[in-house]
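Reply to dn_fold:

You asked what the input looked like. This is it:
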Amino acid sequence: MCTTTNSPEAIEHLQQYAAQIEALAKQLGLDYYTVDFEVVPNNFMMEIAVYGLPVRMHHWSFGVRYIHQLIRQGMGHSRIFEVMFPGDPCRAYLVNGNTLPENTLVTAHVLGHADFSKNNHLFARFMEMAGGHILEQAAARAHRIETAIQEYGQERVEAVLDAALALEPHIDINRELHRPLYSAPPITPTKKEPELPPELAAFHQRYHSLPGERSLHDVPSGPRRPSVPPQPEYDLLWFIAHYGPEMEDWERDIFLAVREESYYFYPVFACQIMNEGWASYWHARLLREADFLPHDLYLSAIKAHSDVVRPYAAERQLALAVNPYHLGFSMWEDIIEKHGLEKARQIMREEDDFGFVRNYLTKELIEKLELFVYEARDDGDIRISENDIHAVHEAILSPKFNYGAPRIAANHLHVDGSLQLVHDHQSDGRGLDLSRAERVLEYIGRVWRRPVTLHTVGERGEARVVTSKRL
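and this is what came back:
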């Protein structure tokens, strides 16, 4: 059965199967907000995948990503089955070029995502902050930016978007989305001069009357200028939006719009292995128990499942990158087999990928899945360096640290308005691409309109300072 879901008949069959699968999902205990499904053409699906949302602010970088995705898809390295947006309701988009069995599987997969996003603590926290209507909010922001383009011109608006999108992952996920400005520290009281004995008072009076001498009482005193920021500030989008010395309101609005969307997407990034694995476990189980599906459709859907959760891409028998579907699916199966479904649901509620991998990717499972850490040699050869459990854990998780971005903080706002940024390379554990850092500083300098410096280290650990003076 290879019929695509382009025809009204195929869509009618898909709707029938989807309703039955949803009823089965509820019967098996899945708990989720309503899911609105929509079948769309492949080109529209690619735009959603590249932009991250059906309607979003326009920027040249999305066009570059679109071309890259188009090339990968044309080479057979990337295929998009669905895109799902958590919320209340959830929105799910399926490709009409998928076969009916594939979209039947995708329907079950989406229900697993919906169950995860409603019940996982990280999704719940960020949805509470950013709201559950991301599509409508993103469309409203895109409209405001289009209005700004009409009023201030494409070039000015694009310069602000360059800076904001370059800093897209630079938020502080430990702080609230809506947070107050810094409060001034307590004013240091002026020290009162001690009372002097009468015999010394006369001497001091004559001494301070000499030319060039002044009493401490004559020195102007006042509150000490508070340090901004009072401590290293890792939420660069928030800091620049609120403390940029000459930013206009519409520019601040763009920074805060990008920041809010970054908060919305963080749980998707931080729970990818858990989330894709959970959805894959449930689509496999729902299909297995869906005795109402025709036998040939079931076999075709299970074949699609095998393609999704296999450890390698295309025809290669060795993968140098982890497939999150395969890893997550294998881990959930292992957990449920050893500890039961209720324990799995507890883990799903309480963990993100960091806790999930460190606590439940066991040595036995690493050996079974043949996971390892490798080194690429200068001559092009690949050498397996180790499969130690901690090394494998950190190799999987290190790209996820700090939203996948270098850990950069605003460290000091000088009295002349110049800004000092610091790379926390010790906790970051990674170096900087200095050419990219220079380019990002140029973007920031256009909106900050004062010199911006970044203190980091070079390849050998030597101190480096990258400076942008573009105003």
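The chain has 19 helices and nine strands.
Hope that clears it up.
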